[in-house]
């Protein structure tokens, strides 16, 4: 039998076991001390605390790298408090910590814990694991130990405890203290642990194996791949916490799911999963997870606090207060002021909406969102409603696209906003929005959903009735218009407007009827009403421009057609209407207009008189000064022909400076190709040897 230092190997093993027991018994624990501080995001994961509650941090300088290294809070030396004091503190708390619930407070859950498990330890899935004493792993989540050192608490072959920072320069196999699972008991020596070169962590069978999960070592994919072969929920949770800290929220969520699948009754796993969902922006799912955690463990303070924070974000103030002020738990000094601010602005918003002060309602809704209710669909919908009532339809429509999507929470079905059930209010505003946009069938559907959710609410009932009547009036007006019964169609649209006097679509439809009846003044008036509600309403602009043309109000017609030209740059009919309105405007001012044309080919100019007459035509003239022998001119000429067809309202001209030197001298042309843009005989732009992109950009710009 082999001997080492005068003792047999079995005897040496027994000495090691005694030493491990002495080390374990001398450690001072505090059951109410959470494993980690909570991140600002409501994270289940954050760095370990250091140097608190009677445990001190050992700091030494390595002899091999001359680098200072701090040991982890899970690898601490005894600070003088004995185990009896720790026991007294445990009995005072009356509760055990959730292992892996990473929090800055000391809330705990008695029902989800299995045995007297101490912070910093590695827990296994089974309840029997809690009957065996565990030891600290020696790992640090804050400052990773340097290479070539053993974490504090491991045992080297000499039987001495190696503290963090001590050099390990042995080339032979190293021995690691086992964690107690598999075939090894606590304090057993595991051969070839490999800790002389890399940090170690518990893995699979419970043995400490080389790890690259802390700090910046390794990558998430390697860690995920290794963890997938494990069957311990605590291991999934531990790695999920690491993934969360590194910002790999999808991976963390997947690992929490696996931990929950193995231990579905663990409230801490549910709470941690809620934090990962929150980080991914899936707030509604996070609320449900926290609600499930509280259901599993009604005394789990951390889950109550996290749920309160989430409920505040979705605007459920009363429910948030119930969980924030949970009996037996200290009030959160950060969340309570936020709750009070949200509640104050929400009350003011309700009052402003009641008296139809929409500007104040909009301001208070914004303030409530800024105060903390940043994921409340109802407050965002209140913004949409206020903008709609203020006739800012474009802004209302853009705000509708950013309303948070939130599934109904378990305990939120009876929560009210502005006197109606919260979910009904969403459909209530949506119905108004659909009506304003002319989607009457969609409006009826949304109003009916609001009525189904909150059938007793007076506001909802009135809206539903009005929406149905307006949709019916609009449908009847459309049928009459198609039958060319324009007078009756006007009456039908008028019936709808009496119920919904801010409906731009009904005004525009009635304007079309007035136009057909030759009542162009009435058509302009209804178009004005529609455009006061929806300023960029294309159909209303077209009908007003056409009506003003009939009334020979050319300046007003040109103004509307210019707006339409910017909105519809490829619409040839709009371009031609603008051209003819511009010509008519010049004639109305007594100006002589000849050689008038719209579109066609690039006109060649050969005399100075012809040139001056051409650039005085209404609208924009683009003149291409060229030479027949110049290669660049030959290359760009086909592109100018294409622009002539693409922008038919613009006069395109070409001048050969060799054949017409008088024009070239008068316009001071020295290089070709040169392009000059004129408006009403005045030059507004000159481009010398431009690129095709530059030329078209300038043509498009001045065509408006």
From TrEMBL:
Top-level division of the source organism's lineage: Eukaryota
TPR repeat segments: 233-266, 424-457, 504-537
Region Disordered, annotated ranges: 28-124
Start and end residues of each Thioredoxin domain: 609-693
SUPFAM superfamilies recorded: Thioredoxin-like, TPR-like
UniProt entry keywords in alphabetical sequence: TPR repeat
Biased composition (Basic and acidic residues): 30-40
InterPro entries linked to this entry: Thioredoxin-like_sf, Thioredoxin_domain, TPR-like_helical_dom_sf, TPR_rpt, TTL1-4
Bias (Polar residues): 76-116
Pfam families: Thioredoxin, TPR_1, TPR_16
Bias kind Low complexity: ranges: 56-75
SMART domains (UniProt xref): TPR
Name of the featured protein: Thioredoxin domain-containing protein
Naturally occurring in which organism (per UniProt): Hibiscus sabdariffa
Taxonomy of the source species: Eukaryota, Viridiplantae, Streptophyta, Embryophyta, Tracheophyta
